[in-house]
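for the recovery benchmark. tokens below, seq after
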């Protein structure tokens, strides 16, 4: 029986992943700032569901949650770092407090939980870490620059973790969803900066105006997305990165094409910077 440790499990992807894992007979430690919301959303799973109060920015509490998980179920087989927040506004419009707050959750919070769980997985010489990134983890956009930068950080951290942990029997996969019909674009998850600079009206400002109309009209189905996450957890040879959604794949193709075009156009400049005694490929 697989034991899951899921952050941000009171709603959205986290809740749906927890539900599907429980429905197939697994154990789930469902952490959230409001564990009562988990209990209300997931009734009838006594003995296999452990709701636990956790703000991922509290590292000591993360260690307490992991200890409770091991005491209850004996192991942690899958860690899903799902807790996260959004920030909408141009980079210049974003206050220091807002930037630090989103990094505290999306980056430092993920690290807090990961550091708490990995000793368990290393002792077991087994486990899977699924870090929820985003389409914005490989392609940034006006209005979401700060949010995307946190996901870029998660991508770099996870890529290194995959190399470090693979010899120890622990797999790491970045899950990169496109836009899904979760509550991510609601005010409960997405903070919109109050500062508005007129010079950004056509870029970040335009995004600010469009976002409310996208909520609950996103192409991705969270039930299907959660099922894909379970499939990644079960995969014998999991990828380092997995895209979810047609919009995510389309943006990935666009970004790869852009990178290739720029690399070709500026190849001579890149090669010109080597020492003269260094042989470089033609």
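predicted aa per position
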């Amino acid at each position: 029986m697989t034991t899951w440790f899921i952050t941000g499990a009171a709603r959205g992807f986290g809740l749906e992943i927890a539900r599907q894992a429980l429905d197939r007979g697994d154990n789930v430690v469902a952490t959230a700032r409001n564990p009562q919301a988990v209990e209300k959303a997931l009734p009838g799973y006594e003995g296999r569901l452990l709701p636990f109060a956790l703000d991922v920015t509290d590292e000591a509490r993360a260690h307490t949650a992991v200890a409770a998980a091991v005491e209850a179920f004996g192991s942690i087989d899958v860690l899903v770092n799902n807790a996260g927040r959004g920030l909408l506004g141009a980079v210049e419009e974003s206050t220091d407090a807002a930037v630090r707050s989103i990094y505290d959750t999306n980056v430092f919070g993920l690290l807090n939980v990961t550091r708490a769980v990995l000793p368990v997985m290393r002792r077991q010489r087994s486990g899977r870490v699924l870090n929820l990134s985003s389409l914005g983890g490989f392609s940034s956009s006006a209005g979401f620059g700060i949010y995307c930068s946190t996901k870029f950080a998660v991508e770099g951290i996870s890529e290194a973790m995959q190399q470090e942990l693979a010899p120890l029997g622990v797999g790491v996969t970045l899950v990169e969803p496109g836009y899904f019909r979760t509550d991510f674009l609601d005010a409960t998850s997405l903070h919109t900066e109050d500062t508005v600079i007129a010079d950004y009206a056509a870029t970040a400002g335009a995004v600010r105006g469009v976002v409310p109309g996208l909520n609950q009209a996103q192409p991705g189905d969270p039930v299907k997305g959660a099922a894909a996450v379970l499939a990644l957890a079960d995969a014998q040879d999991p990828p380092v990165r997995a895209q979810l959604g047609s919009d995510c794949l389309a943006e990935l193709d666009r970004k790869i094409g852009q990178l290739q075009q720029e690399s070709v156009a500026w190849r001579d400049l890149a090669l010109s910077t080597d020492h003269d005694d260094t042989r470089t490929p033609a």
